Amino acid sequence: MKLSDFDFELPKHLIAQTPIKKRDQSRLLVLDRKTGELEHKVFSDIIDYLNKDDVLVINDTKVIPARLIGIKEETNAVIEILMLKNVKDDFWECLVKPFKRVKEGTKIIFGEGKLEAVCVKKKEEGLAIFDFNYEGILYEKLDELGEMPLPPYIHEKLKEKDRYQTVYAKNIGSAAAPTAGLHFTHELLAKIKEKGVKVVPITLHVGLGTFRPVNVENIQDHKMHAEFFMMSKETADILNEAKKNKKRIISVGTTTTRTLETIMRDFNEFKECSGFTDIFIYPGFKFKAIDALITNFHLPKSTLVMLVSAFATKKLIMKAYEQAIKHEYRFFSFGDSMLIR
After folding, report:
1. DSSP reduced 3-state for 130
2. Do 188 and 264 belong to one domain?
3. Which of 13-22, 152-161, 200-209, 292-301 has the lowest mean pLDDT?
4. Average pLDDT for residues 242-254, to the nearest whole number?
5. Contact, 269 vs 235, CB < 8 A?
6. How far is CA 31 from CA 43, 105, 328, in A?
7. Radius of gyration of the chain measured on its C-alpha atoms
8. In a domain, 22, yes or no
9. Are 323 and 179 found together in one domain?
10. Cα distances (angstroms) measured from residue 46 to each of 101, 164, 235, 295, 332
11. Are residues 131 and 26 part of one domain?
């Protein structure tokens, strides 16, 4: 299967630069996988498509202000790093720009010395391991000195940091938001629960695996970077009960989907566990975990558009995207939403 199979023309003005005022008033395109029917709705209408005893699975990861701009100690050159993954203790895997300016042993200073990072190992593809030095609590330093790691296609400054967090964000560790969840409000979730829908969390800390571009024409040659996930016993029990009783499992986002499908692949049931997943879902993949998917509109040629094409077929996704473009839906992180059922 070719990378070019997942390309499409997207007008630049449809790339959402800022979040809309009310989270749940984004638009919702509903795609029926069996009939191919499309409906144009508002996200708060999602409740009409949820039934009593459905299980809605959310990713409760919390984005850290992981984008840091500092200076190289020896030369005062400006260096930008994006903290991706906590390796152990204060050692983090980071994406570095410009990569050539950093060598093993290079010290980078942030906030006039409030935070320092020493490169201990250079890897490939712009990645390096840094040892961070600071006084106090790291996440407090990041709140003070870091910026939200918005994707490169967003050029506007984010005025409110919490708009790049879901309202249920809890477990700190993501380098990007699970953006399908950005449309939910506390009020909408309360109404969904009142309807008898069970809402359960998993955690996947979004890292490079989710948004790294595919650079090979044969997509089977693409390697995903591993991302940390975990599932509690309580969530596993509720999901297994739903499977047993043939109730629907609705995944909020591609990160949630990848976690659920990893666990089902490895254990053939849901189970309390944690680990790293590099699962790559593209057409031909056999889904075992989910029955419906809430997701945003994704980048051309991305692993995310491949995942939704695996779930709904590439033909239906391209038809849906064609309609979304025609009706001027907003795309990507701060954009509109899609329910594939």
Report:
1. strand
2. yes
3. 152-161
4. 97
5. no
6. 13, 52, 17
7. 20
8. yes
9. yes
10. 48, 21, 22, 12, 19
11. no
